[in-house]
Amino acid sequence: MAQGTNSISLPVRIGICAPSTPLPREAADRVLALAALTHPQAELIFDPQCFLEEGHFAGSDRQRTDSFVALANDPSLDAIWFARGGYGAARIAEAAVEQLDGSAKSKIYLGYSDAGNLLGALYRAGFDRVAHGPMASDIGRTSGDRAVRRALDWIVHEKSDALEPGLERGRKYAAFNVMTLTMMTGTRLIPDLRDHILIIEEISEYLYGLDRAMFHLCSNLAEHGLNGIRLGNVSDIPENDRPFGEDPEAITRRWCQSNDIAYLGRSEIGHDVENRIVPFGLLKP
Amino acid sequence: MAQGTNSISLPVRIGICAPSTPLPREAADRVLALAALTHPQAELIFDPQCFLEEGHFAGSDRQRTDSFVALANDPSLDAIWFARGGYGAARIAEAAVEQLDGSAKSKIYLGYSDAGNLLGALYRAGFDRVAHGPMASDIGRTSGDRAVRRALDWIVHEKSDALEPGLERGRKYAAFNVMTLTMMTGTRLIPDLRDHILIIEEISEYLYGLDRAMFHLCSNLAEHGLNGIRLGNVSDIPENDRPFGEDPEAITRRWCQSNDIAYLGRSEIGHDVENRIVPFGLLKP
Known about the structure:
The structure is a homodimer.
Chain A: E1 12-17, H1 25-38, E2 42-46, H2 61-72, E3 79-82, H3 93-98, H4 102-105, E4 108-111, H5 116-124, E5 130-132, H6 144-157, E6 172-177, H7 178-184, E7 196-203, H8 207-221, E8 228-235, H9 248-258, E9 263-266, E10 278-279, E11 281-282
Parallel strand pairs in A: 1-2, 1-3, 3-4, 4-5, 6-7, 7-8, 8-9
Antiparallel strand pairs in A: 5-10, 6-11
Helix pairs in contact in A: 1-6, 7-8, 8-9
């Protein structure tokens, strides 16, 4: 964050945009009310683009791109917080990141799920303050205020107790939703993950779909020099017409093994209020 | 097929295995009864492996591999017909194809959907009688006998009216389910599609999921020298909480355009009884 050691607190100005699907206005209102209580030094700026609707998306590709680029290039903002996932960031990430300038580089970027497309593209482009963690839309979950407070704790204070508890200083990390990352392989969005511990999570996928995605992901990453894979929460698994016969950890372990990737155990990320912060890149000692 | 121009009809022996999910026995019985009437010169051999169940799959990875390899390497068989899709062939295709010998090379292979993993791996390995078309499980559809008869027309007679009607002699083709092919990119299963017209179809995917897969697929194939893409049927699209805003053809056209791939129009393949035959590779003049 911009002024952590100042005794006179300058506002931390956080621009919020929706690169995927729209945020309900009442969710934004609840986040503003909460932040006013818990993080009075934060100034949250919800771009009106967050509330646009065009088919599936929070406005057209152009509108979502322009909103993100304008906020990221605004030198008066300290951080970009993604409002919500869904689907849509893959359609704009490459073109959006190409339009960023120097003042975009110093900002914190925070989000997860479909926003992983932007996290990946930013990290690939050399942005070093990119992090996987809760979004404004998490206010809608039961006890969602915990997730939102954690996000603001990271953006405003870079509080270390917001971090995923298994992270080790001196190692490199990246975190993604499985299906999001699966669809990024081989495209201009996926960053170089050599020497990284990759942390993954999933929601609302059949176990056969998770297995298929892990086949793809581990096959594609096998030669990329990963340090290993850790598995976050896999939630809301739809019931299929018959049981798959393996749980998510067994699936992950098996695909890691058959691709000579180290499986490093579980992790506290996921589509839930426990979703902890994973900064991309080297966790500085 | 083995003896199309013989006036004394030798039996065409067709080995049937299930590389993905199990086939109901009564489906096999119905296919046998139909074939006895319509294709008396065909001898259909359902491997008992078709009826095994292990979790999601028609037996273990080993059992499914062994069944396919044994049938494919059996010199007394003329063709391998895949029983059913679902999911599972990606787990065995690479290891299975590595075990094939010379007598496997002269056979016809027919299937679609998840069996595309084997079609792709076989074609990649130089097998030149691989085709996308109906499977035994299609007997379960309304008027499913039409699909089964078409499959047998191809395997037994290589009847040209079983072919997808838009195919042109002298051009190269391949056909896949979108999600199956999406998960094959970057793996050792996807064949070289240079100069090919790629025909794709999809079932039971949300339109945002189709859009995401087309982002991945077109991004990955953009530099691979495709001749173009044709779109088959996109069926059973689940209803989302809001309309996507574009139909499958508009989605396909847009991703083709942004990746400089020619969009060549519609095609008669899909998860339905109209699913026509697409032989892989050069359609001989």
